[in-house]
Hints:
about 70% helix; about 5% strand
Amino acid sequence: MQVADKIKDWVVEHGLKRGDRLPSEAELMTRFGMAKGTIREAMRILEAQGLIKTRTGPGGGSFVHEVSKERARALLGNYFYFKDLTIADIYQLRSVLEPELAASLAGVLSDDALDALRANIAEFDTPAADAEQERERHIVSLRFHAMLAAQSSNPLLEFLIDFMACMLSDLTVYRRLFDPPNTELWQRGRDYQMRLVEALRDGDAEGARSIMSDHMRTAWRLMEMQEAEMVNRFISE
């Protein structure tokens, strides 16, 4: 692992980017003073991490590879798979990060971005008729937050909010927190999102922060109620 870290440091120090070719195995052995087996093991580790990609044949070799957001999200999701996350765990972070995201985007979103957010809200403009529709609307509603995060100039903030939205979506589906449908959750969530888009359009940073903060608190309370109902239903069965 130490050799793999040294190779990563070397890549950064030399400013290599995605697609750039790494030195040959023999060159790496000489550069780092390591045996062939050690270099090969280090390269296998880096490839498993998604940081390099190896191609065979003419023009082949090892190349710098950028880990995609989807792969990073999946790997991090695997870490939390057995952590038994709760609604409170997720909303504790969302309540801190998302109001600040909303404030930072006030007055800076393009008309196209605002229209895309409105179109997303329009996908759940009526209450769900059954549990399956409720599941779909939970997912669409959470997509609104991922779309908002994608507009951030802070890549770490974007990733964290997008990741939490995905985790909450998975948790909602896995634990059937959409059943039974919750009309209050739908109505209040939709209202908050519509008001937020207008505050973002008007450049009202404090208003956007306040709306998102209220949105998170309300969703936290209502989702915990859904979670408690699911647990009670499971115990009664």
